[in-house]
Design a protein that fits this description.
The chain has about 260 residues and is an alpha/beta fold. It has one domain (about 1-250): Metallo-dependent phosphatases (Purple Acid Phosphatase, chain A, domain 2), CATH 3.60.21. Helix content is about 20%, strand content about 30%. The protein is built from 6 helices and 16 strands. It has helices spanning about 20-35, 55-65, 80-90, 130-140, 160, 170-180, and strands spanning about 1-5, 40-45, 70-75, 100-105, 110-115, 115-120, 120-125, 145-150, 165, 185-190, 195-200, 200-205, 215, 225, 230-240, 240-250. Strand 6 (about 115-120) and strand 7 (about 120-125) form a beta hairpin. Helix 1 (about 20-35) runs parallel beside helix 2 (about 55-65). It is globular and about 50 Å long.
Length: about 260
Amino acid sequence: MIIAQISDTHVLERDEQHFVDNNASLASIVASLNSEDPRPDLVLATGDLTNWGHPGQYEMLAEILADLNLPVLPLIGNHDVRALTREMFPDVPWADTQHASWVSSRPDLTIIGLDSTDPDNHGAVFDEARNEWLRTCLASASGPVILTLHHPPFATGVEWMDSSGFVGLPELREVIAEHSTQIARILCGHFHRPVVTTVEGVTASICPAGTYHVGLDLRPGAGKSIIRDPRGYQLHMIDGPTVVTHTRYVDTGEASFDPGWD
């Protein structure tokens, strides 16, 4: 199975730009996804699909994604609006709770989409209701589990991004530790850079953004910075508990070629 992951596309109203042309970047990603061979089984969109959650941005998002020839499983990001996201993706098996989580069960794999957002803050939250819901999902899951959420459950080392916080992170990490042999990978967004680490023994990764990236500055106290790094997405090849991840960049002006080596 191949899961394509896109993240942090921050779609804007038509003809609006925000440091880069977010909408054009997503359109390029859609075109690249459509040309993938072998074809991904689905596209996991790990949040911040729109820039401010405005209705016009959702209309633009729907227009761009209409060209995508693959099913989409979306997550809520801190820039999105739960009600509008649910409305745009009515076929997603949203949890019947106050948070916009979901479970997608397949014969040999379970994908759990955990809503980590707090509508009143940019940071993450893992409260008692989500704790109970996640434990129930893991207890009934068949096969390996892909756990996905918008906010990474770890510090990146870029302080201005980490400072938004993660309420309930120790409790989430406790659940992950208890199910570390069951969870094959944790997939995240939010950070606007590709990052890989381990969380309680489970490999956790962040997908590159579909728009501008966070500047890589690990100095203590460094100020906010962004950079126009190449945009892209990731392809996760899943074979049982094994997950191999590749990053595809778009709009680089480069194409692969045969070097002619013997």
